[in-house]
Amino acid sequence: MKGATYKSNTLAHIGQSRRSMIDFFGTDRPIDSVTEGDAEGFRAYLLKRGLAEATTRKHCSDARTWFRFAVRHRWIDRNPFESVPTAAIATSHLSYVSEEVAWRVAEEIADPDLRLLFMLARWGGLRIVSEPRELTWDCVAWERKRLRVPSPKTSRYGQEFRVIPIFPELAGPLADALDRAVPGDAYILPKLRRISPAALRKPMLAAIHRAGVPAWPRLWHNLRSSRQTDLEQRFPSHVVCAWLGNSRQVAVRHYLQILDSDFEKAAQNAAQYPHATGCTERKTDLGVNPQVIATPLLTNTF
Questions:
Q1: Is 171 in contact with 189 (CB distance < 8 Å)?
Q2: What's phi and psi for 57, nearest 5 deg?
Q3: In 3D, which of 72, 82, 66 has the Cα closest to residue 31?
Q4: Is the distance from CB of 186 to CB of 136 less than 8 angstroms?
Q5: 180: Cβ–Cβ under 8 A, 6 or more apart, which residues?
Q6: Count of CB atoms within 10 A of residue 7's CB?
Q7: Cα atoms in the 13 Å half-sphere on the side-chain side of 218
Q8: Mind listing the pLDDT tens digit for each residue in 240-249?
Q9: Which DSSP symbol is given to 33?
Q10: What beta strand segments (E) does 42-145 contain?
Q11: How does 145-159 read in b/e, with b if 16+ C-beta sit within 10 Å?
């Protein structure tokens, strides 16, 4: 749209939505002939093609935006996509990558730049690859142990960068990268500016395979998600969200995970509560099978 500016990744997603609409409606369909039923049909068409619910909603959201533009310019008098679900939903592919697993994988990454990228994701919580790509050496405040992270994703909202601690896990790899740096090269990871993000997936999967651990979905996102989950155990939420560059609402919906250790921590001091002891015996005395009572509560837990 005229006057709008978008990042390259956003333009790519918009292009996918546009192609999907052309495939469904054709190139000669008058805009004022599209009905609410057609909008529902477009949604059904996307789902039938095998697109995920979240992706389908994003395409419908783009369509709704375009039709709203047409309404504002009086080309049409109503938006057929207003009643189609477009709200973003939480990802169903969250997977926690423990520090133990992450260290095992890091040790199998031969390329030191790729290893640093991996560690910036798992222990720095950076968005891969847009944020590490923009890191320069003047972003590193060695004495204050802080790292300024340029944030292309949030720059349109006025937040061009955020500051995170140089966590202990990152200090060594950053220092090693400085030793490797070519004089005059401003970027910490200059290779990222010359290769496609897709080229990172194959060597990452190879390192995970060598480490002998199962590959997790959404390789980079779940490293960032795991870091936010860890930090929330140690620091206030507003601090963690400032470091990760997201809001509490976004963190809860797309990043934070419930771990087995949360359940174990909650149950480990049960012996301190005398009223809880002997519950099983009392239920048995009443002729009730405690396992039957527990089963419905656990149905959707595991």
A1: no
A2: -65, -35
A3: 66
A4: yes
A5: 112
A6: 13
A7: 15
A8: 999 999 888 8
A9: G
A10: 140-141
A11: eebbbbbbebeeeee
Q: Long-range contact list for 281-286, CB < 8 A, 24+ apart? A: none
Structure tokens at 10: 């956003």
How far apart are the C-alpha atoms of 39 and 81, rounded to whole Å? 6
Q: How many CB atoms lie within 10 A of CB 125?
A: 25
176-230 pLDDT, tens digit each: 999 999 999 999 999 999 988 889 999 999 999 999 999 999 999 999 999 999 9
Helix, coil or strand: residue 92? coil
Indicate the SS3 state at residue 187: strand
**Would you call the peptide bond into 182 cis, given omega within 30 degrees of 0 as the criterion?**
no
Asked if 150 and 134 count as a contact pair (C-beta separation under 8 A), the reply is: yes
Dist. CA 124–CA 158, nearest whole Å? 22
N-terminal to C-terminal alpha carbon distance within the chain: 46
Alpha-carbon radius of gyration of the chain: 25
Tokens representing residue 272 in the block: 């301190």
The pTM of this model reads: 0.66
User: Which residues are paired to 141 by β-bridges?
Assistant: 146
User: How far is 297 from 57, CA to CA, in rounded Å?
Assistant: 32
Q: Which two structure tokens, joined as six digits, stand for 227?
A: 């870091």
Token reading at 222: 């779940």
- DSSP state letters, 188-213: S-GGGGTS-GGGGHHHHHHHHHHHT-
Sheet harboring 146-150: ordered strands across? 140-141, 146-150, 161-165
HEC letters along 118-184: HHHHHCCCCCCCHHHHCCEHHHEECCCCEEEEECCCCHHHCCCEEEEECCHHHHHHHHHHHHHCCCC
